[in-house]
Amino acid sequence: MKFGIAALSILVMSFPTLGTTASVKADNGSLMTEATIILQGIIEGIAQGDYAKYTRNFSELMKASQNREDFLTLQKRLQKTLGRLQSMEYFGLYVQRGNTITLFKARFSREKDDVLIKLVLEGVEQELRVTGLWFDSPSLDK
């Protein structure tokens, strides 16, 4: 599957579901912690070129839609354009189409501006799965 590039962002992929998981967790603090751990694993996977680590928390549909070659293309592009992660801050969340979208502000070594990261999660109880991931930066539009 190809990546879609929207204005001011790079879309890794998104598969919104309709319906049932409007409230992934009642405790926003718990969700913040879990989403942060998941995103750190994804970013570490990208930095290390570790496809298994990158996709560890992906939904089956996400795993099926991005093969190792697509991952390596993404890795090269993000490393060339953004560089290494320097810091990341959780902003909050909102619910849309049964998914929980968590928002992070990140700083990268090659990007002078902040990067907005949207991590889309679905799941019930302890089993959160990534269904979408965006890195939003003007540098990725070039």
Please describe what this structure looks like.
By secondary structure, the protein is an alpha+beta fold. A six-stranded antiparallel β-sheet has the order 1-2-6-5-4-3. It is 32% helix and 36% strand.
Write the layout of secondary structure elements.
Blueprint: E1 4-6, E2 9-14, H1 28-48, H2 51-55, H3 60-65, H4 68-81, E3 85-96, E4 99-108, E5 115-124, E6 127-136
What is shown here, in short?
With 142 residues, the chain is α+β, with helices and mostly antiparallel strands. The protein is 32% helix and 36% strand.
The tally of beta strands, per DSSP, is 6
What is the H-and-E element order? Answer: EEHHHHEEEE
Terminal CA distance reads 21 Å
Q: What would the principal axes of the Cα set say about the shape?
A: globular
What attributes characterize this protein structure?
disordered N terminus; alpha+beta; 32% helix; 6-stranded antiparallel sheet; 6 strands; single chain; 142 residues; globular; 4 helices
